[in-house]
Amino acid sequence: MRPGRPPSQPFPPPAPASPPLRVLVADDNPVVRAGLTALLSGHPDTTVVAEARDGREAYEAAVRHRPDVILLDVRMPGVDGISALPHLVGLAPVMMLTYSHETETVREALRLGAGGYLVHGEFTTEQLVRAVRDVREGRPHVTPGAARALLSELRGDALAHEPTQTPGIEPNLPSQTLSQLQPSVGQSFRSRFRLSGREAEIMDLIASGMTNQQIAAACFISEKTVKNHINRIFAKLHSTTRSQATAKWLGVA
To answer: Tell me: the pLDDT tens digits for 107-129?
Structure first.
């Protein structure tokens, strides 16, 4: 060894691999449970530590195994997913994973604390694994079917706030049903804001109460892109806050 040269240092030991994310799968269909278990456990970053057939079993398994994430179906015999949800969210982040995308169900699940809502058939294996990890970190995921359900309800609420026809004036409209007329009424009212299609979609999600993270997940874009859209939306609506923009968008300002 040359004088003055520091002794060689051994390479530092490799950092220990992080343990796989531990998942509880709750679904009354044994085929779905087996498929999800095989899919997730076959991925090096995740493992299924327990399965459950209903909400009661899910709660008992969550208390026993303390999973990192719970995948929860909506419709199950006995205690269903929505009934069990308030008891499960205190134990671990919950991701709804179901075939149900009715508006009321999606809204109630998110209101009760679900960290995401995935509809079967609307995601790939890699998207599911990423969504599970993201929900564990507090980043929500909502697949398009669930997002559309929320948007449909929001648009219905907005139409309920549309200005009514002035008494004594009969509009000269072709013979159409109310359901056929409603979409064009809402579009006509909002056209004055001159939002692009994407901006209108994001404004709908803002008005539904979604955070930037939730909007990014629903639209499959980055949070930075969401913020850029929101800045342009606020400029067009002459608003500085989400509440101001929502009031104008719903026609109540």
So the answer is: 889 889 999 898 887 778 888 88
